[in-house]
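Q: Focus on the chain.
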Amino acid sequence: MSQVTPQRATETAVARDGPRRKTRGGDGGEGMDYLVSLPRRVVTVYLPLLVFLFVLLFPFYWMTITTFKSNEELYNFRDFSPFWVVQPTLANIEKLFFETSYPTWLWNTMLVSVVATFISLFCAVCAAYAIERLRFQGSRLVGMGIFLAYLVPPSILFIPLATIVFAYGLFDSTLALILTYPTILIPFCTWLLMGYFRSIPYELEECALIDGASRLQILIKIVLPLAVPGIISAGIFAFTLSWNEFIYALTFISSSENKTVPVGVITELVEGDVYHWGSLMAGALMGSLPVAILYSFFVEYYVSSMTGAVKE
């Protein structure tokens, strides 16, 4: 019997793994080599990215150039191109901030969104923890019922909510929006946090219970610190939905000083069949900046939370 030397064993392993390495993109294989060629890289990577960026950024570009256009440029397509600005002006922004109540609308929107988000997060954290960690009978049905409540469109809910708002004398006040927005925010936030709480190991709670910790201490000192990405993700969702909400704000608010940005821009800058497009686009642009800035700061937490909730 011939003796197997280390050198011969290495040669045998290399010969056996040769085809496998080729299929996996080794030194002589094809694998990911289709990205090495510049034409293929352009078609498979750069071109789709350019299309995606164009679709994503073009609305912001259009709002920006319309904001700085004069009325002459907006309506005279023979002498001016609709895709860039020839003679920029600040008249539209000046009209928005000094001839309307836009700063007040911005403050109302920020106040309602922040308070409604905190209320929704508090209720969603308590509900999600109770459903996922306490393991009571029928918890899954309760969780499914909460998620189904999110699927009910606001166009159906605002009629009974309007009756309640009128009955308690909350009509035409920001408090009406603060108390009604959680009805559409809590169900989805609860469902999202349920998925994230499910990914936290139960052994951590069991060890804490053995050491004498209460459920409240476990929630505050163990679960919540581990669920920060999920809470941030739910907060971003709640804040964005509150910021852009239109139906409730249009139904429950009538006076100009109590309106939010989505309603105020539409109702105050459209006079009959006259659309003040420059100021409208300026209002839309200024109204979208806080949400864009919020996403830019917390996008990593948002993505990690969504992946953590989906993987379960």
